[in-house]
Amino acid sequence: MENKHTISDLYQMQSLSLDSKIRMSQFRYRAWIEEFGEDGVYVSFSGGKDSEVLLDMIRQDYPRVKALFVNTGLEYPKIREFVKNYENVDIVKPEMTFREVILKYGYPVISKEIASKIYEVRRSIAKGNTNTIRYRQLMGIERKKNGELSEFNCQHYQFLLDAPFNISDMCCEIMKKRPARKYNQQNNVVPIIATMADESRQRRTKWIIHGCNAFTLKHPESAPISFWTEQDVLEYIYRKHLPIAEPYGKVVRIGGENNSTERYCTTCCQRTGCIFCLFGIRNDKYRLAKLMDQEPVLADYVLRGGEFNEMGKWQPNGVGLGYWFIVEWLNIHGHFGIFIPDKEKYVNEYGSINTKEHLRY
User: Fold this and answer.
1) DSSP states of 187-244 as a string?
2) What CA–CA distance (Å, rounded) separates 63 from 41?
3) Where are the beta strands (DSSP E) in the chain?
4) pLDDT higher than 60, residue 259
5) Above 80 in pLDDT, residue 226?
6) pLDDT class of 260 with cuts at 50, 70, 90
7) pTM value?
């Protein structure tokens, strides 16, 4: 199957004005709804700013279209309250808790792509098999057909193979995707989602292959704002005076006119996804500090506790998720510089001889 787009197409579309992008997105979601019917689709609504913009656009044309909120329990409480302001929203829950997912599969660290590679490479090594693409990528030796090194090589994350805790990307699959797919099957509907291609390499590749409307996927989905950027979403909210969930604060405009290039930003959180997630933490080093400011009880639960199991792997215990150790280990061995609020308190209260050995104290 030929790719729908090239990377040049994405850059060209991203450079368009917001008004042009709105028109292009309208064309795409209208084609999707014409294919499946207004009762055969729904908007995946997380309560975050991206999905709110998408829902606002679609309901201007199709006010009866349903929305679906997957209540993972990992959102800011204010996000769940915000979702209740919208009508015609179905709510579903996952079958496992986040703690259960960590205990069974491991912690979500760095990114979905890296966590997935570490999980699969560890499994293959345990079976005595190092002849896999992911292993070679992690070693930095995978090559393309033309002999050049693969752009998917990530040897700088090799050190995660030695992490004294399990790592995986299964939280997204179990906490979000599975409840949504179950809803799809039970109601014979297909989703319209607010993911954007520039959020990750995986999403960019997916857009290049399938475009915005992925009719041929095993689980069809439409992503009509794939070619938007974060700035487009913020500008849309600013222009429309669209109310957003409290954890974001407000959207403000900076620069422009007599100053430098005009930009938009939120006054509080940049993202409000799963607040217990460590994906993207390298680019959001004060995420845990922000969580402590806004939701101190939840932040304390995330950071405190933890213990080594019989296999010598760190995991949550009855006290908390033990993130203080996870993040400190990443800082020491990966030189990430992630800020841990009240670090000394957690180290002193929950540290041990074993943690000190791993943390080189």
Assistant:
1) HT-EEE----GGG-HHHHHHHHHH-SEETTSSS-EE-TTTT--HHHHHHHHHHHT---
2) 12
3) 41-44, 66-70, 89-92, 109-110, 190-192, 213-214, 221-222, 251-254, 263-266, 278-279, 307-308, 314-315
4) no
5) yes
6) low
7) 0.85
